[in-house]
Design a protein that fits this description.
Elements: H1 2-6, H2 22-36, E1 43-46, H3 56-59, H4 62-93, E2 105-109, H5 126-146, E3 152-156, H6 174-187, E4 196-198, E5 202-203
Parallel strand pairs: 1-2, 2-3, 3-4
Antiparallel strand pairs: 4-5
Helix pairs in contact: 2-4, 4-5
Length: about 210
């Protein structure tokens, strides 16, 4: 999609990156740095995720667990770590703005399935659930660490949407999910640092 938009809008830039490949992540950060220049990057949205269908502990292979964690958890850490200098740069150049997504923020797309409180419902998507629970802790740790640089970090549950991961049977269109997430990002301030949010700015239990 971003590659298509690149031909329509001059301020859209498409950069391929496999978040499980640290070399590609570093290269992407370097390319973005050249694009944004001294202004830095005001908002990093970590959206990449995979979902396998192993059921339970016995049905989830070690390979499936490793691949899922590499993308859904470790990849997010790699992206945030490598883009941190650009976010810090934005926080400094936009010092006249309140702490928010307009100044410097990291938004991690999580899932309600990553809520430990809700794990009693079924034994589906074991690796995915574990990766998202870990992502929520990573969000909290990132939030605690980066607030000193005036950067906030929060997790968002976009809802079950009609994407390549959610499937066509999902009740929420991709467009509606994006609209809900944009509203959340526009409303987030220092108060929401480390939060796990859903539509309407409602908090989800970790």
């Amino acid at each position: 999609m971003s590659a298509d938009l690149e031909h329509l809008l001059e301020d859209v830039h498409h950069i391929n990156v496999d978040v499980s490949n640290e070399g590609q992540v570093k290269d992407a950060a370097s390319k973005v740095s050249k694009i944004v220049g001294k202004d830095g990057l005001s908002l990093l949205i970590n959206n990449a995720a995979i979902m396998r269908h192993g059921k339970g502990i016995a049905g989830c292979s070690v390979r499936e667990m490793k691949e899922t964690l590499d993308t859904n958890l470790i990849g997010v850490h790699a992206m945030t770590q490598n883009f941190h200098p650009l976010l810090k740069q934005s926080a400094e150049t936009q010092a006249h703005l309140p702490i928010s997504c307009s100044r410097a923020a990291v938004c991690n797309l999580s899932a309600e399935l990553g809520s430990i409180k809700g794990t009693n419902r079924n034994n589906l998507y074991t690796a995915y659930k574990i990766s998202k629970a870990g992502l929520n802790m990573l969000t909290k740790c990132t939030a605690v660490d980066l607030i000193k640089d005036n950067i906030i970090c929060f997790s968002v549950h976009p809802g079950w949407a009609q994407t390549s991961l959610g499937g066509p049977q999902a009740p929420l269109s991709a467009e509606a999910a994006v609209e809900d997430m944009i509203k959340i990002m526009e409303a987030c301030t220092k108060k929401q640092n480390g939060a796990f949010l859903r539509k309407g700015m409602n908090s989800i239990m970790f």
